[in-house]
Structures are given as structure tokens and as C-alpha cells.
Amino acid sequence: MQLHQTPVVVIGCGVAGLSAAYQLADAGYLVTILAKEFPGENNIMYTSDWAGASLGFAAGGSFRARRVSQETFQTFWDISSRYAPEECGICRITQETYFDKKPDPSLIWYSKEAPDFRILSPSEYPAQYAFAVSYTSMTLEPPRYLPWLVKQVQSKGVKIMRVEVDSLRAALDHIPDAKAIINCSGIGSRYLKDVKDDAVFPERGQTCAIRTSFKKLIIRSGAEYTYLIPRPLSGLLILGGINEPFNTSPEPNPASREMFKQRAHKICPELGPVDQMEFVMDIVGVRSTRKGGYRLERQEGGKLPIVHSYGYNGGGYQASMGAGKEVVRLLRGEDSY
Ligand SMILES: Cc1cc2nc3c(=O)[nH]c(=O)nc-3n(C[C@H](O)[C@H](O)[C@H](O)COP(=O)(O)OP(=O)(O)OC[C@H]3O[C@@H](n4cnc5c(N)ncnc54)[C@H](O)[C@@H]3O)c2cc1C
Questions:
Q1: How many structural domains is the chain composed of?
Q2: Does residue 185 fall inside a structural domain?
Q3: Where is FAD bound in this sequence (predicted)?
Q4: pLDDT tens readout for residues 143-157
Q5: How far is the CA of 243 from the centre of ligand 1 (A)?
Q6: Of ligand 1's atoms, which has the minimum distance to the CA of residue 229?
Q7: Ligand 1 pocket, residue 9 CB under 6 Å
Q8: Mutation pick for ligand 1 pocket among 9, 10, 15 (CB with most ligand atoms within 8 Å)
């Protein structure tokens, strides 16, 4: 490990900020996180509490997005080799993705990276789909993983402070010796005075959990985008989901819940009839979506370098650890795609 001991400040304690802190601390930086919200506080605008969360490879994307996805997958795979699922909240499971029509190979770019990857034969998936793939993937339970991640970063020397800032620069009032600012403020980037990124906007998501012993992660790509994400440690299956731009209502919509159950039954009849599914809870959270995709870049021009890492929409966990590594590369001024 290279010990720079260069102090840096990270704004945001969601999965983006914590993962950046994890990678920065491993790279030898002295990290302080400033944030106004933390895991487990039941605030729908703190997105990381509400994810499914599927950790499979992101579909398609640029060369860099694929690298971010691949590095994240590899990091979670390593963590799940070293820690028990009960401890870190990560479980390895079989993922199946169903397509309405044969996908362009670029959508399944991970065929050589994904453990146990195979194209399913038509007898192995419902007749209404044209193509399906399977591999060994992972899911994560945010209520278990986030506290574990907080402890991990603290054990690496990261300090965490509850502070609300109105600009990135204001972070220096609290950490005056910081040599760089890492912006992981999610939806906050729309409002911070020296960021004001109008491309980021709130997008409401809703899912529901049912109790079942079903343990396969299923994604339906294309029309009627649907997912079934198992939480084997809690005996739950998360059914979703929807995207509602600029809606920040915390109230669950019962019609959406019924739609998730209907769609899940269509994909996976073995879940049983909709009216016999054991409903456990609705989950509502607001994603920080960004037109044009997430912002993972270094900004020059001020007294200090700023590295932005936000706008992850529905894939913040899938990108988290790889994005953290990218933050380190950007900070070091290393080549980045
Ligand atoms: C229903 C649902 C299902 C999802 N499923 C998945 C999934 O299966 N897989 C997946 O990969 N992703 C999933 N996601 C997306 C994922 O949850 C997000 O992409 C991710 O949590 C975003 O993390 P973040 O750290 O960028 O933002 P957040 O978790 O919102 O954290 C932002 C942080 O910045 C802080 N902050 C903001 N402004 C300020 C300020 N002015 N001063 C100080 N601190 C500030 C906040 O307090 C907070 O600590 C899902 C999301 C939802 C809602």
C-alpha cells in the first residue's frame, strides 16, 4: 500500500461516497466524509437505503462503464469470498436475463467475464421470450451491507461527520487542509451552489417485497422491464420496478404493487397466484438520475481538484466499487476513459 496520507474530503455517505472512501483509504489517502444523511434513517431522498439490490453486470455501456461494472463485480465477488453473507449482506445467486428478441452482443458484453455464463436453451425459460442467458451473480441487502461498509471504512481510518454544506467549497470550512474534494452527493448535486447540475433530477422508484423461498435473480429486459431480486438472508423477493421522474412522494402506490406482482407471476409462474403471494412491505426511494448518464470526472480550474461521482440512477450499487477505483485514478491524474 502506498501511503500518501493526503487529506481529502468526500461529500456524501451513500454507496457512492462510502465506496469512494473505501478505495481512497486503500490507496493511502486520509479521508473525511461529510454528509447530512446516513444509512438506516428512513429518508426517501437518501437513495442507498432503498435499492434491491442486484449486483449483476450492467447491460451495454461505454468501455469505461463496462470497466466500472467489471471492477465492481470483481470487488463484490472478493468480499463475498472473505466474509459470510450474514456479515456483509452479499449473497451469490443464479441470475437469468430474459430478452424479447435476440440482443445485440454488445448488451451481453460480459459473457466472458461472468462466472458460469451460458445461453439458456428455450426449454429453460418461458415461451414468450426469444433469448435468455444465465450466470452466477450476486445480490445485496442494503440494511446489512451499508452498516458493514461504514464499519469497514472506519476501520481503514475514514472519519465521518454529519454536516450539511451548501456548496462543495464549504467543505473546506470543516476540513481546511483537504487537498481535494470528492463530490458523491447524489441528488444534492442539483442544488449545491457551485455544482447546480440541472441534468440530475429526482426519479421515484417503488418495489415490493414478498416472502418466498425462491432464490433466482430474474431480469426481464425490453418492454415491461421487470426484476425479481432475492434476499435469501431475509427470505424475501423484491419485485419491481418503476421510474417516475420528478415524483418525490413517499406514499406507495397500491396499483404499482399489483402490477409488480402480476408481472412477476407472468415471468415466474412458480411464485404461485398473485392473490396468494405473501406481501411483506412496499419500498419507495428517489433515485438521482442524470440525463446523459452518471458523472465520473475530474474538474480543474479552482484552487483544488474536484472529482465528481454521482447520478447513478438505478445502478449505483452495480457501479459503486469500480467508480471508487475510478475516483482514485482521476485524483492521481492517471489515464481514464
Ligand atoms: C427502488 C430502488 C431500487 C434500486 N435497485 C438497485 C439495484 O438493484 N442495483 C443497483 O445497483 N442500484 C439500485 N438502485 C439505485 C441505487 O440505490 C442508487 O444508484 C444509489 O444508492 C445512489 O447512491 P449515492 O451514494 O449516489 O446517493 P445517496 O444514497 O442518495 O447518497 C447521497 C449522499 O449525499 C449526501 N448529501 C447530499 N447533499 C448534501 C449536502 N448538501 N450536504 C451534505 N451531504 C449531502 C446525502 O446526505 C447522502 O449521504 C435502486 C434505487 C431505488 C430507489
A1: 1
A2: yes
A3: 47-48, 165
A4: 999 999 999 999 999
A5: 14
A6: 8
A7: no
A8: 15
**Cβ of 47 below 6 Å from ligand 1:** yes
Residue 211 falls inside a structural domain? no
Give domain status of residue 187, yes or no: yes
Q: Atom 25 of ligand 1 has which residue's CA nearest to it?
A: 14
Does ligand 1 come within 6 angstroms of the Cβ of 10? no
Please tell me whether the overall predicted TM-score, pTM, comes out greater than 0.85 for this model: yes
Return the ligand 1 atom nearest residue 318 CA. 11
Is any atom of ligand 1 closer than 6 Å to the C-beta of 288?
yes
| CATH code of the domain containing 305 | 3.40.50.720
Within a domain: residue 327? Answer: yes
SS (H, E, C) the chain: CCCCCCEEEEECCCHHHHHHHHHHHHCCCEEEEEECCCCCCCCCCCHHHHCCCECCCCCCCCHHHHHHHHHHHHHHHHHHHHCCHHHHCEEEEEEEEEECCCCCHHHHHHHHCCCCCEECCHHHCCCCCCEEEEEEEEEECHHHHHHHHHHHHHHCCCEEEECCCCCCHHHHHCCCCCCCEEECCHHHHHCCCCCCCCCEEEEEEEEEEEECCCCCEEEECCCCCEEEEEECCCCEEEEECCCEECCCCCCCCHHHHHHHHHHHHHHCHHHCCHHHCEEEEEEEEEEEEECCCCEEEEECCCCCCEEEEECCHHHHHHHHHHHHHHHHHHHHCCCCC
Determine if residue 54 is labeled as part of a ligand binding site.
Answer: no
> 179 is in which domain, residue-wise?
1-53+141-199+291-337
**Ligand 1 atom 33 nearest Cα:** 12
Give tens-digit pLDDT for 1-19.
455 589 999 999 999 999 9
